């Protein structure tokens, strides 16, 4: 998995893979964005507001803007397209994220799913699956959803 991510980074950045992967933050960010792309693509409809929410998350949470965001999204789309399953990304996240970072990632996934003010069953299913693979408790899974969507009426 790491070798494949190194290849993707090296092909897009033109840098030596050792230099690129000296920074684990880039790997964490790529894995996170790839999962966000998975939510955007889940319902087979890419809504502009979902991509816009992804860009907002990148800017606010990771300070990645403009051309850097475009590059990161392109690399994440490529990685997501080449991955055979979620484990490709969740293993790296489990290795490098603490519990709070995982919860924040799940909340970001809910924000993207809710960007069109409708959560499709497939989006909820994927977020639930990812929460399980990331060892995020059901309590935190529900709490993050409620923070994004609000309390049911």
TrEMBL record:
Q: Which parts of the sequence belong to the Co-chaperone DjlA N-terminal domain?
A: 30-145
Under SUPFAM superfamilies, the record lists: TerB-like
One Pfam family of this protein, by short name? TerB
Question: What Gene3D superfamilies does the record point to?
Answer: TerB-like
User: By what name is this protein known?
Assistant: Co-chaperone DjlA N-terminal domain-containing protein
Q: Which organism is it from?
A: marine sediment metagenome
């Amino acid at each position: 998995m790491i070798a494949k991510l190194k290849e993707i980074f090296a092909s897009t950045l033109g840098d030596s893979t050792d230099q690129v992967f000296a920074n684990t933050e880039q790997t964490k960010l790529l894995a996170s964005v790839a999962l966000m792309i998975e939510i955007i693509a889940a319902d087979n409809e890419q809504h502009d507001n979902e991509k816009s929410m992804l860009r907002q998350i990148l800017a606010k949470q990771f300070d990645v803007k403009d051309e850097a965001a475009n590059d990161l999204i392109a690399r994440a789309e490529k990685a997501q397209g080449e991955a055979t399953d979620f484990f490709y990304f969740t293993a790296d996240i489990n290795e490098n994220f603490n519990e709070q970072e995982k919860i924040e990632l799940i909340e970001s996934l809910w924000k993207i799913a809710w960007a069109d003010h409708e959560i499709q069953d497939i989006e909820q299913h994927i977020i639930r699956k990812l929460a399980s693979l990331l060892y995020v408790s059901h309590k935190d899974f529900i709490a993050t959803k409620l923070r994004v969507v609000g309390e049911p009426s």
